[in-house]
Specification:
By secondary structure, the chain is α+β, with helices and mostly antiparallel strands. It is 24% helix and 29% strand. It starts with a strand and ends with a helix.
Length: 414
């Protein structure tokens, strides 16, 4: 069994406004639209794409009932605020996962395995409700479908995958904000239902408590999980497997000045806090996005002075000034290994956490990250751009702390 992220679906109050932001500031392009339908809302749906990142953007609809019987049309889009509501997983065994989900959450929150098709073949699909707020997972099997996207959609005739620059490649990870003391239950659900397993965030993590960021009485706790992998992908030198990763974040205590509690209040419950896009050149990506008007979170004033040995940056052919100008955070490790050629041999999906730590300690790797300001008026969801070298895991301890301090300042210390 394996998974990959096929698309992420949003329910928003203003489809045009959000779509324009993605097109103008993150270089997404119009990829597809629904075929002619009697559904009054489906005409507003748009599908955008940037490399392998695909977003379906639906118009918010008041009321609990779907507006039509088409599976790909407006389900779970009645949440009261702008939100990312569905992470669609392409998987090899829809029915098996559905039954796992039903055994864990037997209430009537799933859609049985069904099929939808057109001249290009048949797609098997099902829906399971995540234990996280309004999030659901659509499960699709595309092994019998040869179309460009999905049945019920028409790909833009002007779509050209090589016709515009790709500054991002795929979804690296998705972070979710959870209520207090809910993380362990959620981790167990993703393990039981979807086969996800624990993945270390960094080598300083406590295996039981997770990774804790704390300053004074404020802070947050994080744990991460990794989806089942196709092991042959990991044996390709310097090939980063496209494996779904989820990071779960909760406050350390009930705290009105916690950014997690702020998210839960503004989002009216748990949900997707940020989505990270992988890139092969973060400086090019961010500089282009900022030139188009993208706003990024400013790291703390002392970050670059404290975190950046200049010789280390120069070895990566960057300067501190370049990274600072683009609000880019960097974390790296110089391990015992003379070469990183075996960096992806460890199967993070089944290995012990102790083995993951040892592997990360001995490997030469770096992670570079930048974060946008919130993209919705509720100041909930934001995006991350991340570049990795010789690691599929990890979210540098210094980077997490710097981001947390920057967001705290943005929210509470203006």
């Amino acid at each position: 069994m394996y998974h990959s992220i096929h698309h992420i679906r949003y329910s928003v109050k203003n489809v045009q406004k959000f779509s324009s932001f993605l097109i103008n500031q993150l270089n997404f392009k119009k990829y597809a639209t629904p075929k002619a339908s009697e559904c009054p809302l489906q005409s507003k749906t748009i599908v955008l794409r940037h490399a392998d990142v695909i977003f379906i953007i639906d118009q918010w609809k008041e009321g609990a009932e779907p507006c039509c019987d088409n599976f790909f049309c407006h389900r779970n889009n009645n949440y009261p605020v702008n939100t990312a509501c569905d992470v669609c997983l392409r998987t090899s065994d829809v029915e098996f996962i559905l039954q796992k989900g039903k055994s864990a959450t037997p209430e009537n929150s799933h859609k049985e395995t069904d099929h939808i098709g057109d001249k290009d073949g048949i797609v098997s699909y099902a829906i399971i409700k995540s234990p996280v707020g309004n999030l659901q997972h659509t499960l699709i099997d595309l092994t019998k479908y040869e179309g460009a996207f999905l049945p019920g959609f028409e790909v833009n005739k002007f779509w050209d995958p090589e016709g515009h620059p790709h500054f991002m490649t795929t979804v690296d990870h998705i972070a979710l904000s959870l209520k207090l003391e809910h993380t362990d239950e959620v981790v167990k659900w993703y393990n039981h239902c979807l086969g996800f397993t624990r993945m270390i965030i960094n080598t300083e993590e406590d295996f039981d408590a997770g990774f804790v960021v704390k300053e004074g009485i404020h802070g947050l706790r994080l744990k991460a999980v990794l989806g089942p992998q196709q092991l042959e992908e990991q044996r390709v030198k310097n090939k980063v497997p496209e494996v779904p990763k989820f990071v779960f974040c909760e406050a350390l205590k009930q705290d009105k000045r916690s950014q997690i509690e702020h998210f839960l209040f503004m989002h009216q419950g748990e949900g997707i806090q940020h989505i990270a896009f992988s890139t092969n050149n973060i400086v090019d990506a961010i500089s282009n996005f900022k030139a188009s008007g993208l706003q990024c979170v400013l790291p703390p004033d002392d970050y670059y002075a404290e975190q950046f040995p200049r010789n280390e940056i120069e070895n990566l052919d960057y300067t501190v000034e370049t990274l600072k100008a683009n609000n880019i955070l960097l974390e790296s490790n110089h391990g015992e290994a003379e070469s990183g050629s075996d960096w992806c041999e460890l199967n993070f999906g089944v290995s012990r956490l102790e083995d993951q730590v040892q592997h990360m300690n001995k490997t030469n790797w770096f992670i570079m990250q930048a974060f946008t300001t919130p993209v919705f008026e509720e100041k909930t969801l934001f995006f991350e751009i991340i570049q990795r070298f010789q690691t599929i895991s990890g979210f540098g301890a210094g980077n997490i702390g710097a981001l947390w301090r920057a967001v705290q300042k943005e929210l509470f210390n203006k």
